[in-house]
Amino acid sequence: MTVVFTNIRIAAYVFIFALSATVLGVASNFAKLFLPHVQHDYTIFSLVVPSVTIFALLLILQFAQPVVEVLVHVVLGILWLTMASWTSDIIGPMQCYILGGISTPTNNGSMSARSYCYQMKVMEAFSWALFISLLGFIVIVICLTSRAIAFGRRYAWTEHISQLGWFGELPGYPTEAGISPSILLSIPVLPVPREEVLTFSKCRVTPCLSSPGANGVPMVSQMPGPVP
Fold first, then answer.
1. Cα 173–Cα 176–Cα 181 angle in degrees, nearest 5
2. pTM of the model
3. Do 120 and 87 touch, CB atoms closer than 8 A?
4. What is the tens place of the pLDDT at every residue in 149-195?
């Protein structure tokens, strides 16, 4: 029932892990070049954010509940928003190709300003992409969990996240039996004869005795007795 959402979740985690690992690699190169004297605060923060993200992804694989994932992704989203804003503030709208032949001071010398600019642009783009991805995942998890609650799973927020069904699917484990909503909508609804409706209404008030009648229509006669 939830194979689609499970596959999308895994693909999203692989995407976030790949981008976080790339940012961590660039930040590690900056740490080697700049720490401990040049751009101290930003370099340390750029190491912390992707490291926390990778650790959090591994952690929520063990505690995969919608409430846990939403809270963790909110924290990670705030961190990546801060990272993207800080990087944008440092590099600004600078065009990297005009920096040829210019050097940037490092801890033990200098490096190409064009190379530094390109690496900062990569960190800026990946930070914004990670923030948008986490925000989108939060919205999807909230929507799917709300649907699961509407389908009668009162504890959907604390159940395993694999029980959430994708849009058009019912919630439940992939091996759990169920009927697709499209199948339910395709089942014809037969009209109830008026005689049966009247009979049901009468028999709710007083006991009834049913006997075969003409043309297959049952004969219903009310029996005297107290109303229960």
1. 95
2. 0.69
3. yes
4. 887 888 888 888 877 877 776 666 544 544 444 444 444 555 545 55
